[in-house]
Each structure stands twice: as C-alpha cells, then as structure tokens.
Amino acid sequence: MEGNQSNVAAASPNGVSSVPAGQELAMQTLSYSSQPPSPNTPSTPHQQSRNSIRLLSGILAVNILLLGSALVCGAAFSKVKVLSDEEIHIYLTILLILTTAWMIFYMVHTASRTQAVLYKDSHAGPIWLRGGLVLFGVASLIMDVFKTGYSTGKLNCESPVKVTFPLVQLVFVVVQTYFLWVHSKDCVQKQSNITGCGLMLTLATNLMLWMSAVTDESLHQTREEASKPNGSFDHLRDGSMFFKAGRSGCECTHGACEIFEKGFYYLYPFNIEYSLFASAMTYVMWKNIGREIDDCSPHKISFRTKGVVFGVIVGLLVVIAGLGVFVVYEVEVTGDASTERVLIMYYTFCIVGLSLMSLASLAGSVIYRFDKRTVVSTKNPTRSLDVALLLGAALGQFLISYFSIVAIVAEKATRTVSMLNLTCSCLIILQLCLQNLFIIEGLHKQPYHAEPPVVSVVFINEGTSRSNPYSPSLKNDNDEPSPVENSLERSSHSHDFSSTTHSSSSRMSWKRRALKEISGFLLLCNVIFWIIPAFGARPQFENGLEEWVYGFSMWVAIVNIGLPFGIFYRMHSVASLFEVYLTS
Amino acid sequence: MEGNQSNVAAASPNGVSSVPAGQELAMQTLSYSSQPPSPNTPSTPHQQSRNSIRLLSGILAVNILLLGSALVCGAAFSKVKVLSDEEIHIYLTILLILTTAWMIFYMVHTASRTQAVLYKDSHAGPIWLRGGLVLFGVASLIMDVFKTGYSTGKLNCESPVKVTFPLVQLVFVVVQTYFLWVHSKDCVQKQSNITGCGLMLTLATNLMLWMSAVTDESLHQTREEASKPNGSFDHLRDGSMFFKAGRSGCECTHGACEIFEKGFYYLYPFNIEYSLFASAMTYVMWKNIGREIDDCSPHKISFRTKGVVFGVIVGLLVVIAGLGVFVVYEVEVTGDASTERVLIMYYTFCIVGLSLMSLASLAGSVIYRFDKRTVVSTKNPTRSLDVALLLGAALGQFLISYFSIVAIVAEKATRTVSMLNLTCSCLIILQLCLQNLFIIEGLHKQPYHAEPPVVSVVFINEGTSRSNPYSPSLKNDNDEPSPVENSLERSSHSHDFSSTTHSSSSRMSWKRRALKEISGFLLLCNVIFWIIPAFGARPQFENGLEEWVYGFSMWVAIVNIGLPFGIFYRMHSVASLFEVYLTS
User: Fold this and answer.
1) 3-state SS assignment for residue A278
2) Segment Disordered: which positions (chains A, B) (predicted)?
3) B50 inside 8 A of chain A by CB
C-alpha cells in the first residue's frame, strides 16, 4: 500500500526520459535526497545542521551501546563474579527513565504547538509494523507483570532493582507504544537537535533491551539444559561460557513464583520482537528528521481477490498443513521417543513448503524478465530502508542455516533427521535469496494501473507537466520547461509507448494474473512460516547435532540472535508481498 | 588532497542559492547520486541493471561470509574436534584461487580493450591507502614465506593443505596489491555484472582472511598464555573458549621452525591490517560500478608549512616523547618487576598526549563555529564513504576503552596503574569524538582558496554559468538558464558576498593559521598513536585487570578485533587531517 504515490515520477514511456522530465526528476530527487539544497530556501545552514545532528546523535547512541555491551558481556561471560545482573539492571533502568521522560516531553511539546510537525512521511510506520508493535507490546506488558510478581517474591534475598526494573519497563512499553503509534510518521523540523538525540537514545535503549533479553534468554536456556537430570550434554556443561554456578539458593516467599517464572520466560521472544519493531520504527523516524516532503496520501489501490484462485488455494493448503504440523509438534515433542518422528514430519513439511515457495519466486522473477513495466527510479529513503530491512532481517535465518549445514557436513551425519535438516537448511537459503529477489524487483516496478493506453494521448495533447497525471507534483513551478519543447520531446516517444502498450495488452493479463497468484501464494506461506517459530517451535534444539558440534551455549546464542530476525523477516515479507500483490 | 574539485558546487555566496544554481546543483547531485537518471540517455535499464548487480553480488558476499563464519566458529569454539583448521584452510584456498583468477581475468580484459574503463574516480584509492596496502602487503609476503617454511617442517605429520595455503596466499597478495594499485580508481561500465560479483568475491575473501587471522592470532595468544609456567591466570585456563588441547605433539623436521613461528606470529597484525585496507579499497571500487563521473584531477593545493610553527613543534615534541616511551616499553616490558613502572610511564604519556589532542580538536571546532565558509553540500559518495570509514574504524578503539572502563569500575581497582588506565580510556573516547567532529567539519568546508574577493566581479560581468569558475562542470548544456535570469539572481547576492569577504578578510588570517596549526599538530600526534600499537605495543595485555574480569580468551578476542580498526583509524585520520590542513 505504501510507496505508490511517490514512485510515479519515472512514468515516462519506455524508460527514455526527455530533458524536461529529467529536470523534474532532478528536483524531485533533491527533495528526497538526504541532502536537499531546495532552490528557494537557504539550504546550506539547514543541511549543515541536519548533518551535525546525525553525527552527534549517532555518536551518542554508539557510546550508550558500547558501554551497555561491555556491561552485558562482563556479566554474562565473565567467570569471576565482578559484574552482576544488578549493574545491567541499574543501567537499563536509567536508560528507560530518560527515554520515557524524553518521549513524554516530545509528545507534550508537539501537542502544545500546532506548527511543531509540518511534514509527515506517509510511508513510515505502516499498519503492519504498528499492529505488530501493539501485539508484541501487550505480550511485553504481561511479561513485565510476571517479572514483577516473581521478583517481589524474592525481594527478601535479591536486590530491589530487580523489582523496579520491570515496573519501569512496563511504563516505558506503554509510553513508547503510544508514542510510536501516534508519531512514527513525523518529519521533525523544529528542535531537531534535541529530537535527534532523543530518538537515538530511544533506539539505543531498545537495542540494549534486545541485547539484554537475548542474553537473559540464552542464560536461562543453558541453565535449564544443564539442570536436566540426564541431559545428553553433560560433558559440555562446565565449559559453557553462559553457565553460571546454578541458582543462588534464594527461595521465593509466595507460591505463584514458578508460574510467573515459566510465564515470563515463555513471553521473552515476544519482548525481543517488540524491541526489534520499536528499533526499526525509531530508526525510520530518525532518518526522517529534517526531511521536507509533500505529504500525499498513498494511492488507494483496490484489493481484489477476483480471478486469483490457484495461488490462494495452494497457499491455504500449506497454511492448514503447517498448522497441523505445528500442533502435533507442540503436543508430541516433549516425549523422548516421539521426538525423531515429529522432527521428520516437521522437516518434510518445511522441505515441501520451501520447495514450492522457491519455485514460485523463481517463476515470478522469470515473469519479471519479460515484464516491460518501467522501474521506479526516484530516490525514496523509506523504500531503500524497506529493502535494507528485508535483506538485513534475512541474515538471521542465513546464520542459523549455515551453522546447521556446516555442523551436519562436518559430522558426516547420515541419520534421516540430519539429512532432512541439511536439505531444509539449504532450501531456506535458496528460498530467501529467490524470494528477496522477487520482492525487491516487484517493489521497484511501476504499478500496473499507471499504464493505461490513454496515456499517450494525454502526453501529446497536454503540454505542461502539471496536467500530466503521472508526473510528480512539484513544489515550485519556476523552472517549468516551455510547452513547445515538452510536446516535441514527448511526441517523439509517444509512438513507441503506445505500440508497446497495445502489443502487450493481450499478454499482460496472464502476466498480471500469474504475478498475483505467486505473490498471494508466497504471502500465505510466509504467514505459516512466521507462525511456527513465533509461537514457540524450536526444532533447532530438539535436533541435538548442532548443540553437540558448537556447544550448547554457543548454539543457544546463535539461535536466540538469528531467530527473532527470522520472525521479523517473515512479517516484513508478508507486508511487502501484500504490496507486490496490490501493484501487480 | 582528494575531494576538492568536486566540492566546489555549492560556492554560491552566503549559502543562498539562486534558482538556476539550484538546477545546476540538481543535475550534479544526480550525476553523483547512486541512482542517476541522466537526462539524455535511457536511464532506467542502466539503473535497473546497476541495482540488480548490487543485489546479486551482495547476496553472494553474504553467503560466502556466513559459510566462512560457521567454519571458523566451529573450528575455534567447539569443544568437540569435529571441525579442524584443515576445512577452513581448504575453504580459504578455494576462495583465494577463485579471487586471483578473477583479478587476472579483469586485468587482462581491461588491458586488451581500450574502451573497457571510461570513467575514473579521482578520489578513490588515495595514495596513503595504496601506500599502506603495499607496506602491509610486503609484510604479508614475508609472513607467508615464514608460514610456508614452518609448515614444510611439519609436513610429515600435518596436512599438505597447510603448505599450499600460504603459497596460494602469497600469489594472491602479489596479484591483489598490483590489481588495487592500478585499478582502484576504475568506475566499471562494461561487463559490470561479472565485475560486481568479482569485487564482492574479493571483498568476502579479504574479510574471511581477516576473520581467520584474528581467530588464529587469538588462539595462539591464548595458547601462549596457558603454557606459561607460572601464569597468573591458571584458574581461567580450562574454561577459555579458545583453548585447545595444547600442541599436537607434531615435531618439526628442520631447525628454523621456531624462528619461522615467532616471525609469522609477529607479522600477523600487519596481515590483518592488509586485509582491512584491501577490503576498504575493494568496497569503494564496488560502489563505483556503473558510476559516470566527470573525471577532473583534484585541485593542486600547494603544501606550505610557512607560518605554521607552534603546532608542528609541539606535535614533533609529542612524537619524540612517544618514540622514547615506545622504545623503553619494548625493552623493559618483558621484565616482571619493571612492568608496572613502564605502564605508568606509558599511560602518563597517553594522558598528556590525548589531553592536548582533545583540547586542540575542541579549539578547532570552536573556530569552525565562527568560520563563515560555506559547507560543501553536493553529494559525494567517496566523501560519505570516507566519513563512514572514519566513524566505523573509531568503533574499534571505543570497544576496547569501554570494556576497560567497565572492568576497572566494576573491580573498584585503586592501584595507580588502574586509575591511569581508567583516565586514559576515558580520554581516548573523548579525543576520538572531538577529533571526528573536527575532521568531519573540516572536510565539509569549502577550501579557503575558493573564495578570492574578485569572485563578485566575475559573477556580475559574466552571465552564463560556464564562465563562472565556481559552478560545477556539467556534462550537458541543454538546460542552461537564460543569461538575464542568471545575472539578475546573482547580482542580488553579490553585495552580500563581497561584504562578507571584505569584512572577514582581516580576521581570516588568524583563523586560517589556527586551523593549520591545529590540524598539523593533530596529524603528528596521530602518527605517533599509530606507530605505538602498529609496531607491537600491547599494554592491554600487560595490565592484567581486564583479562581477569572478562577471561583471557574473551579479552584477547576484543583486543584483536578492536586494535586493527584502531590502527586503521589513526592512518585514516592522518590522511584526513592532511586534507584539512591543505584546505584550511
């Protein structure tokens, strides 16, 4: 849905842009570029201040993060008990209080002045990101309540910081979710110095929360594994870098402690996801500081499923099969005897699903090769960011897959489960690469509706760029080229364009339909591949081989870092595929 | 020296640019932007292919790197001997052979066709980077010879891959150094698909070499530490993640083995630095694929030291003091009794030097506040990359400093050495932040020589933008604004400009001199802070506190990752400060 309006700039036919169109493009690129010397305003001081804000706030964030990393590493990896969780919790509490105070200040300040935010970026903070934020925010709130309950029970023997921290985090999550819901589209112009530092503080706080949650979760899992009565990894236990000297012997004063503990460890992944979502949104807000854009609400493209049957049906079949596998997995995986059977079922489902998805993505990319639609060439920071997030989030899955492949190949494992795991890991890499290529190509294509055959008539009859509905809306009319020059330039291309449109109109329909089928199918498949890990399936730990090769603590760290990014990737690709579906 | 010519675009007086100047700027921004839809050529296919090259080659590099990381981690961290060095060496050898083959193919192909490379980026591959590459390349060659000698002696009991690898690396270093020396400025247009993948392969290979060298070096140091007869970290030994079961009992067949081993471990840091340099240069080449730029050789700004006395003298004093400290450090640090005395001397020198540097940078930034020179606002990818490399490389020092600070504060250490170390670490962070601000502000300022008082006369008398020596050189003259409009716009600003020039001409001289003094002083100081770590001083390990807090293996990893970036940072900042010196 996002990104359609601003991308209509390059709608000039056949990719050959005339000189005046080039000038228009130039002006629009400037208004989008990160350093916009707009022609009528004194650009240099504005841009200078924008650069220095970026630099200062960036340095601030780096310092917060590195100090935090040293604290987390010191507490988690150190054998000597010099640093404890307490220092980290104090540090995080201070960060949370500062960030919450700044967000409240920002909201009050923005509400009190009518002219505080002049521009809004309609592509920032799309609904799936905000919806996900609220969803994971609610889970984080419950986690904080559980944590507070658990820590209250241990108040007699543990530091009061452990009770304060979840309470402060609770307030922070509420304030931040509201803040990002309301303000994620802001392009701040006033007081941008404070705002830049505030946003970087928020970003650093979220990344610190992410880092500490990943470490906590990994520590907890390693402890659980080590405390198993007949765990198969006893030999690894004393060497593990995460392993601490076990529980402290601090007893809980109320009975609900165990429930609270189980509850909040179950909710940890949602909290990790929440931090990632908030980081992404804060980063986009920070990038938008000082940006001056014409806010046009995106084109309303009607969502129709008419005619798209095959892709949706196959996709729904995959979803239903996946849900079945997920339920069986969750029910049976605890039993020792049935684990192998369940894993074989799980991997088989993955292999079938991923193969279909890879083939679909490949077919989509092939169709794009024959697709004559122009590529949107205007610079759009939100779109570039979208692509970067998609590629970056895929790294998480890549990481896990490559470590699995190396472990299985090195071990020369020949069990059925291992071979299936190997095939599955290879397919994940292949599928992610192909799907990324398909999505990125799709996002950069001109929407189909922008090329009706009447365009060539409009081009010839109307001289000025204003009356051409496919030219970008410009803020200044000063440098409009002469109508004569314009129509001359355009008429020279109009023949090519109309011929292309007419000759391809008959084939266009099957191409469009195929693209819609493919994106619909991929969308549904990504939903099920999101649901399975998001709601707790962790075949990476049931398999046992990677744990043995890398050591439990290291494998836990890899999975806990990689998997949340993988979940983020699936959600993001669902949103992107929806956009591809609409524009096809 | 670099970056002067292209930055003259925003020389419009007082930062208020007229509309025609805005148009020129727009065109220039486009020619510099990463997605240039240049007005007279069919832009879309060109840009589309450029984007897809980036995407494909980026995915290739990510896959090579992740597979390599899994191999390195598996071999280094795993307790179980499933993966060994052999697999990594085979993988690296394959990568080296492929990369060497591609580089030879590229050079032959470029030499055989006259039109193979049409554009050159004069800012890419500056002399300090190429010089550093050759310097570290020579050290790497010697290291490879030593390694081959060492491995030949152990051929009876170790894999032949260990002899093949250094020999292949030797050929690779020779070919790559020549390749980057000759071709680092190329903006490839033809066969850019293969070139993109080839360059990403080269980048990935260099990063893999860096990763494997850092791991090797860390493993070696941990082994050395563990094998010390009365090492003070015995209690850490068995838990260390790098620690392997000691030497394999494989005896060397010739007598020079020990010399070879000592030699190549001494040369490791140079090889690590070589990989970083090559990576930076390859990355710039990759970014330049498909870029079409007017190649203008940079302005010859004469290098004069006349009048700059104070900064240079103080700088030289710091250099001489530093060399003295370095020699004493290297001679005395082996003795156990004198270590503390030497460390106190070393830290005192650092504190004095860094304080002076921080004050100088601060003074420079304050002078910039009063400096009315316009900021260069055109988009220049090489300049942005320069700044990114400067900020990124500083992270290495930040990392080490923050880990030191946390260790000392957590341990509540009160020894003189610890307090000095704490002060020194804090000062490093402060100094790097201030120096980065100073350098980046300096790099973005218009060179002083670009604003002679005659400019206003030129502006009024000559109408067209071609004859204005401060307007950017454009490739197309089609959209030149009308002379009348131009002179009107310009004359309205000429008064402001000439008045500024005249009123500030008397004060300009002390500002310029102060900036030259400061950049000269900082340059010399950075040279000595480069020499000390580059030639082997490692006070981070003599101190002992951080090792105790984080564990030896972890601290070794942090220092081995952070320090090469720190050394790269100092070299890069020397080059940047030289540029600031010239343009002030």
Assistant:
1) helix
2) 468-504
3) no
Judge contact between B177 and B107, C-beta under 8 A: no
Rounded-to-integer distance, Cα A404 and Cα A504, Å: 46
Residues 406-425 of chain A whose Cβ lies under 8 A from any Cβ of chain B: 406-407, 410-411
Q: Which residue in chain A is spatially nearest to B411 when comparing CA positions?
A: A82
Q: Which of A85, A549, A553 to mutate to test the interface with B (most CBs of B within 10 A)?
A: A549
In this complex, how many residue pairs, one in chain A and one in chain B, have their CB atoms less than 8 Å apart?
240
Radius of gyration of chain A (CA): 27
Q: Which residues touch A385 (CB under 8 Å, ≥6 apart)? A: A283, A284, A287
Enumerate residues 104 to 123 of chain A having a beta carbon within 8 A of any beta carbon in chain B.
Answer: none
* Terminal C-alpha separation, chain B: 12
Shortest Cα distance, chain B CAs vs residue A461, angstroms = 23
pTM above 0.80, yes or no: no
**Chain B environment of A33 (Cβ under 8 Å):** 29, 33, 379
Q: Could you identify the residue written with the tokens 């398999």? A: A543
Residue pLDDT tens, chain B, 584 long: 333 333 333 333 333 333 333 333 333 333 333 333 333 333 456 666 777 888 889 999 999 999 999 888 888 877 666 777 888 899 999 999 999 999 999 999 888 887 777 778 777 888 888 998 999 999 999 999 999 988 888 888 888 888 899 999 999 999 999 999 999 888 887 778 889 999 999 999 999 999 999 888 888 888 877 776 544 444 433 433 333 434 456 778 888 888 888 888 888 888 998 999 999 999 988 988 887 765 554 555 555 656 678 888 999 999 999 999 999 988 887 666 778 888 999 999 999 999 999 999 999 999 888 877 777 666 666 777 788 888 999 999 999 999 999 989 888 878 888 999 999 999 999 999 999 999 988 888 877 654 444 333 333 333 333 333 333 333 333 333 334 344 434 434 444 444 444 444 444 577 888 888 999 999 999 999 998 988 878 888 887 888 888 888 888 889 988 998 998 899 889 989 988 888 87
Q: CA of A375, closest CA in chain B: separation in Å?
A: 6
Tokens of A162: 């452990």
Give residues with Cβ within 8 angstroms of B509, minimum separation 6.
Answer: none
A405 interaction partners in chain B (CB closer than 8 Å): 67, 70
| Helical axes A257-287 vs A161-183, angle rounded to 10° | 40
CB contact under 8 A, B377 and A67: no
| Partner B, chain A 208-267, Cβ-Cβ below 8 Å | 235-236, 238-239, 241
Distance from CA of A452 to the nearest CA of B (A): 20
* Residue of A541, A551, A452, A478 lying closest to A13 (CA atoms): A452
**Cβ separation of A374 and B44 shorter than 8 Å?**
yes
- Contact present, B265 and B128 (Cβ < 8 Å): no
CA distances to A26, A145, A208, A281 from A173, in Å: 42, 12, 14, 14
- Contacts of residue B219, defined as CB under 8 A and 6 or more positions apart, other chains included, come to B76, B242, B244
Please identify which residue in the block is written with the tokens 């570290």: B136
